[in-house]
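Quick start: what a row looks like.
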Amino acid sequence: MVRLPLTPAEVERGQRLGALLRRARGERSMLEIALDARVSPETLRKIESGRVATPAFPTIAAIADVLGLSLDAVWAEISEPERGVGPTGSAHRERRQLTS
């Protein structure tokens, strides 16, 4: 099976996911979280570093559960582009301000 290359948007979303998981993990060790989520520490490290931009849903669900994150909150944070970055970020921000 041939995997298609990731789009820039998928790579960015993977980086946002990794940053979110690192923040949520806080001072807890990567090993502790990985073992509690029943994933390998290497898998968690790759996700947190953005090297695995599109991890499997059950993997993210398990990690989010251990970290006390709802999947809705995870999706909301990773699917929203960085604010103020490029034209899409500023347009998105302006739209939100108009509808608020």
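That is the whole record. Confidence is low (pLDDT under 50) at residues 84-100. The chain has six helices and no strands.
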